[in-house]
Design brief:
The chain is an alpha+beta fold. The protein has one domain: Glutaredoxin (3-Layer(aba) Sandwich), CATH 3.40.30. It contains five helices and twelve strands. The protein has a seven-stranded mixed sheet with strand order 5-4-8-7-6-11-12. Strands 3-10-9 form a three-stranded antiparallel sheet. Strands 1-2 form a two-stranded antiparallel ribbon. Helix 2 crosses helix 5. It starts with 6 loop residues before the first strand and ends with a helix.
Length: 206
């Protein structure tokens, strides 16, 4: 059950983050001081994905073209995330192991929504705990805003009492085919059997 609903500015218009996500078939996760929650929304109805320019966790500049030719499983989060991000990346690591050789036909990508703290080195250190095939991408505030808009991802910096901040963000893993077209999503806390079947179908397109 969603415990916190916050207003966010998106494209210069104040909108309710929950309503934005309702058009993408996503989950909204709140990691702020009011608590953590999630809520399911309806099926995707908007184009997901598009051009981007970011930096991978090895310090190399990349665009969406570097990931063409193989399907992609892409997740948005941040390295200081207390629960959702390490859980999702741990699940992704387990999926890669379960898929065995089929996992090589998929790009596995983690995009940070925290431009201030998540440098390439920070991403590299964080991802060392997960499967090495997961590529971390980060960038400037403008670059992250662009890629988040392309994927219809909600994120927002939330100040914490006593200083510091956390990030509210969407929590689905987006699936794209080898040409970069939206092919579905893994919902947060979706059953592993269902998620693996979706990933097997995705890998078969690679």
């Amino acid at each position: 059950m969603l415990r916190a609903i916050r207003w966010a500015a998106w494209g210069g218009v104040a909108v309710l983050g929950l309503l934005l996500l309702a058009t993408t078939g996503d989950w909204l996760v709140t990691d702020g001081p009011l608590g953590t929650g999630r809520v399911a929304t309806g099926p995707a109805s908007l184009a997901i994905g598009g051009p981007f320019r970011l930096t991978d966790h090895r310090g190399r500049a990349v665009t969406e073209q570097d990931f063409r030719g193989r399907p992609m499983a892409i997740f948005f989060g941040f390295t200081h995330c207390p629960d959702v991000c390490p859980t999702t990346l741990g699940d992704m690591t387990n999926f890669i192991a379960a898929l065995d050789t089929a996992a090589e036909r998929v790009h596995w990508v983690f995009v940070s929504v925290d431009a201030e703290r998540d440098t390439p080195q920070t991403m590299a250190d964080y991802l060392s705990a997960f499967d090495p095939r997961i590529v971390g991408l980060s960038g400037s505030e403008a670059q992250i805003s662009d890629v988040a808009r392309a994927f219809r991802v909600y994120y927002r910096k939330v100040p914490l009492e006593g200083g510091g901040y956390t990030m509210d963000h969407s929590a689905s893993v987006f699936l794209l085919d080898a040409e970069g077209r939206f092919a579905g999503a893994l919902d947060y806390k979706e059953g592993q059997d269902v998620a693996l079947e979706k990933l097997r179908m995705l890998a078969s397109r690679g």
